[in-house]
Amino acid sequence: MHNILLIAKREYLEQVRGRTFLITTILLPAIFAGVFYLSFLSGKSSGVGKHIAVACGDAKLAGEIRTEILADPEAKATVDVFTPEMDGMLMDSDKAKLIAEVDEKKIDGFLWVDVPANGPIQATYEAQTSGDFVTSERLQSALNHALLRGRLVQDGISASAVDGLMKDVKIDTQQVKSGKEVKSNALSSFYSAYVMALLLTMTTMIYGLNVGRSVIQEKASRIFEVMLSTAKASHMLSGKLLGVGAVGLSQIGIWVAAGAVFAGSAFGMQLLSGNLKIHISPLQVTLFAVYFLLGYTLNAALFAGLGATLETEQELQQYSPLAAVPVWLSFSMILLISTNPNSPWVVAASLFPPCTPIVMFLRMGSQMPPMWQIGASVALMLLAIWAVLWFSTRLYRIGILMYGKRATLPEMMRWLRYS
To answer: Rounded to 5 degrees, what are φ and ψ at 124?
Structure first.
């Protein structure tokens, strides 16, 4: 045990004193904050300030559509009503004029509404950009509201009554916990779980790969030959896992402390209010630490054994997608997880050890999983860690002293038998 702690201390001090630790501690959260802030700004500015023309043979309907678009305070749109040359009919020459205006950037786009004497109404939105789905959805909503309003008025309902019928009703969300109603905000809950899952992913991947790089660097410098004279290979691997893991916990601790100080400041309280308010429970903090340790140990044990079989860091980099596959798989299910957190597929993914930390935290953003599932996921991760460590320690004992070429699969199988 004494040797394990000495090696862990050496690994910890070596990494903490390096410039990489200082840079990532400051730069990584700054990048995350910048990405989320830009994402928030881009969402707020999507489809805002457009100059749109509404072309419709029915002048009254065109005016209603314009009113509906202007009534949306988030759109901040400028809307022109296009009057056809022949009253009541839109011609090809009218469309050619509008296309020319779009091409000359006089307008951002136009809504072409064809109202035939018999048959359904057809509408087309034409613009220079093909991916502005926000504006398309706003125009579709405005058109449907205008049509509904016109038909209700036509059926003899007064305009004031129509306004009352079509007034939007805001839905407040409540979550049922243990038979009690608890006020909730789906967006803030999702973002808090998403941020924690993403942070968990980055740290476990980075520090897991760091263990593999450390093994290769020490193997190349042949420092292992000296260290093995005083410590066992299993002690060296255990010390390396403990030391690098402590570095990760220290970095996360710094981020948590800095986040708490920021949240307590006047600017932080103002920023994290309203729709951006983020609440993280003590249970989530505890589970974050647990899943970090488990996820890190699983990744680090895998890459420690793999690093012992390789000669250069470039070779290790080729295997880095192994750590990314569970991440891709987990985040590809994000829509299913947020809408149906108790789906059999989601539960199965949360119990699959490589995906457990990410999927569990994404589930927490929608609904806290049952404690038996959390306990089962921890037990399965411990079992997976034991299995990976069993293989990695046997590869590590022989691989760290092998030089000259990359080990083949048959050679690694022989190493397992030798150990």
So the answer is: -140, 135
